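On clarity, I found the account of how folds are encoded harder to follow than it need be. Since the whole study asks how a given chain folds, the encoding of that fold should be made plain. For illustration, here is how one protein appears when written out as sequence plus structure tokens:

:::
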Amino acid sequence: MVRRSFAAIAAAGVLWTGPAASFDNLTFTVTGEEDLEEGLRAASLLVATQDEDVTDPAEILAAARAEYGRLVGALYSEGYYGGVISVTIDGREAAEISPLADLGRIGRVVVTVDPGARFRFSQADIGPLAPDTEIPEEFAVGEPAPSGVIVEAARSAVTGWRAVGHAKAEVAGQSVVAQHDRGMIAAEIAMGPGPRARFGRLTFTGSNDVREERLRAIAGYPRGEVFDPEELEDVERRLRQTQVFSAVALTEAETLNYDDTLDIRADLVAYPPRRIGFGAEYSTDDGATLTAFWLHRNLFGGAERLRIDGSVSGLGSDETDEGNAGTDYGVGIRLERPATFSPENTLFVEARAERLNEEDYTSNVGTLGFGINRYVNDRIEVEYGLAYRFSRVEADGETTDYSMLTAPLSGTYDSRENELDPKGGFYAALGVTPFYGLNDETGDGARLTWDGRTYVSFGADDRFTLAGRVQGGSIAGADLERVPNDYRFYSGGGGTVRGHSYQSLGVTLDDGVESGGASFVGVSAEARIGVTESIGVVAFYDYGIVGRDAFPGSDSEDHAGAGLGLRYLTPIGPIRLDVATPVSSPEDEDASGVEVYIGIGQAF
């Protein structure tokens, strides 16, 4: 048997990236360090070949000859620089077999790895370093010396210099010496910061669909300022957020200009300008909800987005003998213009018309408004504006016109990694809408809403997820009767308390009329369990309370629901099936039966 040291192996090893083959008789042995075996097996081409269930001798030989290099790299990454590897095919060392040899049928392959001692740093020097550069703590004398730590130290040093403007910082020299007799690694890295750079010219390619002056306004490119990689990331993000481009890539020039400026090239690939979309949800009580939209991403050549959307809800719902419960309709149009007054601002103008046929009332609503959506950072956005709102409400045999001027202000914080199927993070939305009545029927006040959601996952591959939600709203400053019915708060249905009918819980006014309340608080909890890679189950509990005043009191009525759900995971998000039943209800509400809800994405 021929055994080869790492130096010889590194010279002979050839990486194999073609398809692997498999065979029945493979022995894989790691001596001394049991903790290494799992990682070495994961790096092994021969183990992968066996899993593929192919028996071509030529492919097995190719994998065996490449095995040395793969395992050497895996050992280096763990700090083992003096190991010995043997790979034999029917007793012959694979490195000694010609790649053109005709082996016939391969009977037995044996891989033996003796990792030797784990090396530690006898020297760990790197410099010069930029101020506040954070080098990995593991890059220190006496610590284990995996190759990745050395690479990460060099990468951190380059990143530190780039952060203070030295765009072309690089490793100017390095010495990494393995002291085999001592089991030590002496590492010395010399950095070359280069001159401090400033942003030079920005050029665009593939951007004919959007006018260049608008591209520059959107990019917010800080020409002439000291180079900052975070500024460059912001430029790329702003271009992506237009939703005009399917790909945005910023490339730095290879060298600085004579005046130490650095030119940047933006390569852009545009989406087709038009897009349409559809959506659907269903519950046994609320019926089906259908939505559709048409979008133009670049209406006037300046990355303006025009979206027209429509919705129909309550199709096939359980209409009652009392009230007006039935089908609701809505249509809206919204025009957005990015980079208005600031690269982080998006100006919007929107209009919407709705027909609401609810159990307690019927309302025709029209809204016309404008405002600014401002990006703060990757997690926070705020939106503010002015709008006129008119609604004609028919309730209890009377018709009332509500006319108001509103100044909506809202903010969201979202640290979820996946909006449709979150496993962790936090979501919070807060909105306050002051309103001023323009006729005698409409009061003055403010409408406040909030929504907080949190997620915790654990177990292998985050198989178990606990999700919680608290939501609510409040009307302050105006009598409830002088606020449009569709501004008031209800509980019940898929978005609040499952198992109860949509908007089944409200309040009773002084004249005995059923209505929405001036306040609402809802709490939901879910336990989500992944059964397989594509199937999950959910247990949930919802609670809601609606108050006559700005905050629910002890005399406010409440209800609760609970149930089980099934999730089928798809590339566009989980398909949701929930079955819920009432747990508690007011005395005059039917607390029997079940409700079924179907949609895309988790309930919250």
In short: Residues 1-22, 320-324 have pLDDT under 50 and may be disordered. The helical segments are 6-12, 37-43, 45-52, 57-78, 147-163, 212-219, 229-241. The first helix runs from residue 6 to 12.
